[in-house]
Sequence to fold (612 residues):
Amino acid sequence: MAAITVPGKAAHGLDPGEDGTPRRSRRGLAQKVRRNLSAYGFLLGALLCFGFFTWYPMVREVIMSFQKTKRGTTTWVGMENLQRIFNDPAFWQAWRNTLLYTGLALLLGFAVPFVVAVVLNELRHARAYLRVLVYLPVMMPPVASVLLFKYFYDPDFGLFNHILAFLHLPTSAWLNSTSTAMLSVVIASTWMNMGGATLVYLAALQTIPGELYEAAELDGAGLLRKIWHVTIPQTRLILSLLLLLQIVATMQVFVEPFLLTGGNGPQGSTTTVVYLVYQYAFNFNNYGSASALGLVMLLVLAGFSAVYVRLSRETD
Amino acid sequence: MAANAVRTRTLISQTQLNRPTGKVLYRIVLVVVVAGFTLVFLGPLYWLVTGGLKSTSEVIQNPPTLFPQHIHTDTYSQAWSRLSMGRLLFNTLYYAFGALVLQLVFDVAAAYSLSKLRPVLGNVVLGMMLATLMIPAAVLIVPQYLTVLDLPVLHLNLINSPWAIWLPTVANAFNIFLLKRFFDSIPADLMSAAAIDGAGPLRTLWSVVLPMSRPILGVVSIFAVVNVWKDFLWPMLVEPDPANQTLNIGIRSLSTGVPQNVVIAALAIASVPTLVFFLIFQRNIMSGLTAGGLKG
Fold:
């Protein structure tokens, strides 16, 4: 983002005020003060909201991780909260579940939209219709999609088992079994969320110059080699940006397991890290442990966010 | 969409498609994709709408029926009254549009200030705002909740007040980034022309900047409404009173003990406004998604 600087137009309140010759005259100073006051007046509402609801909670999150509140008195406890959550078996299970969810969600939620986008980009008909369809679930209220899937997953009267039985395939207990509960959550969440990624890929595919494909064909490349040597390299940056974004988003999964399995699922098989934070804070009133777990999560995700920021600078 | 218009070529060349085998293969792929997508994405919605028309026993019958045996429209009226859908819908719209107004006022003002008025330390403020994008939202839920419970300095408790939903939405660095980037592209000449005419910053914002910024204001507005509409965890925490709940939360908490067909009818009712909204604004929503950079 290049800032627009207007040299030599200080008189009308458009002076960038950083470079330029310093004005020592009183009128200039008064004007500068007035201009800054009005600028901060415009900023005030946003500054207060950021202050109260983002910046202050950020600081508080870190402080609370090392504090404990018991009967209204807050004391510093150092690493005690962190030690306690590391010793909680639910901690390791939640991370295993979250990583499993993220892995499955990437297999489905990252690969499927890309394949769908590549196919959609080749079609000459019904493009608008198909784009609207893919994006439709993204707009639905999550409770509607999730509870509908819960109904489909029902082992007795659910649609999915009926279809499997109709095709003479083995039916599944879906959400009620430790081995398939997480996969069921991922399928529902992919259906709900794949529209966004598909449309972003589609936009990226449309920027690939056609000559590259022509050149590849002259070299005798077939369909798969064209995808491998032209399509993927040309969309590499968008692909990696979305990959990072999806990792950060899917590791914070909460709504889908919370609504589908009540959060824990059979034997804790769908407890995610954010659900554990929620439990610590709002079921056990243990804000210290909740914050400490949040801090661990922040540190894990900060790595991905940092790479994302570096990569996204390249696109500008 | 007009077929075969002058498009840049894609993976498969036009000559390949014009060959007889190409034509046949293309037809097959097209039919499979259109049928498959309709089944996968519209099928569940069909099940939603017709499920609400079935009787209580039919909806949990095995095997499931494709068409309702008897049309029970009263399920919808039952759902409307038993889950108090009217109130839930009103609450959700109230939160969504309140958030929209506040975001438009405060985020536009902030982006305008950072882009055009450029105060001292403006870049530091912008940097601090953008830094919040790096913080996963889920991490801040607990301290944010405690803040809303007892706002520092002012000692207000915002729980069960719409402000608990409205005010945090203003702290949206993505909005400010999008708006500022757009305002940056407005030529400085226009701004100084307005200043020569004696317009103050507010006047310039209102009659020069805003009329030029309609596309980006549309994108920001749509995201503002959709985000509140889809949010789950935060409204569940800060609006515990059933009278103040949103659709997402209300349906979940009221659906226990209600027959399955009534729940499905309620879900169908809840989905209708979103789908209508989407079909009206689909062009803006989908172009905003890609123009607005990468966000989910």
Q: What stands out?
A: Chain B has 15 helices and no strands. Chain B has two domains: 14-78, 90-254.
